[in-house]
Amino acid sequence: MPQSNSTRKRTGRPGLARVLAGKIVRRIARQARTAAIPLARRMIRYPPAESHGSSSRRGSYYFRHEDRDEIVRAWRETFDHEADIVAAADEVCDHVFDLLGSGKKALGDPIDWHTDFKSGKSWPSHRPLRPGEITSAGAGADIKVVWELSRFQQVGVLGRAYWLTGDEKYATEFANEVSSWIEANPWGRGPNWACAMDVAIRSANWILGYHFFERCTSLDDAFHSTFLRSLWEHGWFIERNLERQQINSNHYIADLAGFFALGVFFADTGRGRRWRDLSYDRMCDQVREQVLADGVDYEKSISYHRLVLEMVAYTFCLARKNGMAVPDDVAQRWMRMFEFTAAYTKPDGTAPRIGDSDDGVFYKFADRKSDHAYLLSLGASVFDRPDFAAVSSRLSEEAFWTLGPESKPEFEELARTFRDRGIPKQRTPKSAAFPDGGFYIIRSDRHYAIIDGGDNGMNGLGAHAHCDALSFELYAVDKTFIVDPGTYVYTADPRWRNRFRSTEYHNTVMVDEEQIHPIPEKWLFALPDAGDVKVTRWDIGDESVVFAGEHDAYRRLRDPVTHRRTVMFDLQSETWTIEDEMDGSGNHTFESRLHFAPG
């Protein structure tokens, strides 16, 4: 294979990136302030009661209540963890939650929807939040804990437990929690109306729950009316607070995914159809904008690539259920997102942790902190890709509930097709380069490395990037060996947030105790590129695979230095060689760190 000589250029000015990061923070705060203008709620135009989410006239969903018996039968033929689902649903009924690494915590009755139970910090619910109340709450407080609880991702386990057991206590719990939330969170006020992304994710999960429970006797007419009215208000809020910026992010894609689910749900109304069509057109545009030609999400974070792929997949699968075609150019980028996911999945099925990660998902069907391969079973069926089926190894619940019971025989046929080729599962995917995203992956049956050979993403903003130029993760002899430490924390502790973004916390070389990219300490979601990364060699041969690259971020020093790194894997001896060359003049200190996996 010919050598590669590609350069990932800086695409934005550091000053611009800092300005935009500030705008993003101020925009979230402004949303919270302006959403609850006293007259705003009076302006909402509600649809006639008789058409308000009518099940006979709204758009199609992933599954239908009429097919419950068939779906449950197929589920039991496919999965064997019914007892685990019931146990998890019982914990939800007891208000026991595990959020953002908290461990299981009993939140009592009623649930306090405004308090970070990890720190004890509460946010006011009677007024819009002020700017500093979101990002600078102090004392280790994290508003994301409040937002995570109010995303209502527990409804997936409640709904499945109800369908599997027929016990209406799960429907009653859904109704009670939703009613409690609506009463405690007046429209546009408090922390749970401060970020449109979370409003959108909550909307989509409420709709998921409603499709499980809508025919339950536990949901009386009063609940239906209150619920549908609040859901309609969610749509109005999102429409007026879409997180559209000069440089967009996963937030905007989440807004559109939730907005589209609302539009389909209310497709029996003119405004609902407008929501559906507007959000779908913009989602297609955002795939063109935010997904690079090789399928990598342009935020350059593995975790956020997973989240964006989820939201894109759920949107397009729901669109197809409603007879809406995915444009060819958009479908190609969507498919390549799955290809990148297949490529970065380690031989043990786990994912690397390059860039930021809060382990966010759109719907929660299982604990997926380090497992991204579940998405590939969905991609296998959508794109008729046996290789995706091989990497995922089994049908996921996400694919089952999104594509329906017919996904089971489809997936099994794809997996059988791959096995019939006589190629061992571990041999795929092969070593691969994603030059637009800046990721290079070397692999064999029992070995794997992913190397960061790109810029910080988001057109120079680097909102979810780290100081990790030429850093890598290494999996050797069937075991994760060298790792990226990950993220640890966001706004709850700025000092630790910045440590985990620093050069010292990555598997690369630090010069003169200077960061590869100077970290703007006040901007926790900005890391502008300080230099260019150039890949000088990418060679996949019969005997070895070689990556070579360099970055010039340290050319800014008084005595400039260029860092060059070569990573070679010998396919015959199964040995790794990593060489660093520091090219410059003068006296310098060099620190090279490796972070080994626990155990």
Task: Quickly give the CATH architecture of the domain at 64-241.
Answer: Alpha/alpha barrel
User: Kindly state the mean pLDDT as a whole number?
Assistant: 90
Number of separate strands: 16
Terminal CA distance: 37 Å
Question: SS-based structural class?
Answer: alpha+beta
Low-confidence stretches: 8-14, 32-39
SSE topology:
Blueprint: E1 6-8, H1 14-35, H2 68-78, H3 82-93, E2 96-97, E3 105-106, E4 115-116, E5 121-122, H4 132-135, H5 143-149, H6 155-165, H7 169-184, H8 196-213, H9 221-240, H10 250-265, H11 270-290, H12 302-321, H13 328-344, H14 374-383, H15 386-392, H16 397-403, H17 407-420, E6 432-434, E7 439-443, E8 448-452, E9 472-476, E10 479-482, H18 494-501, E11 509-511, E12 533-540, E13 544-551, E14 561-570, E15 575-584, E16 590-592
Antiparallel strand pairs: 1-12, 2-3, 4-5, 6-7, 7-8, 8-9, 9-10, 11-16, 12-13, 13-14, 14-15
Helix pairs in contact: 3-6, 6-7, 6-8, 7-9, 8-9, 8-10, 9-10, 10-11, 10-12, 11-13, 12-13, 12-14, 13-14, 14-15, 14-16, 14-17, 15-17
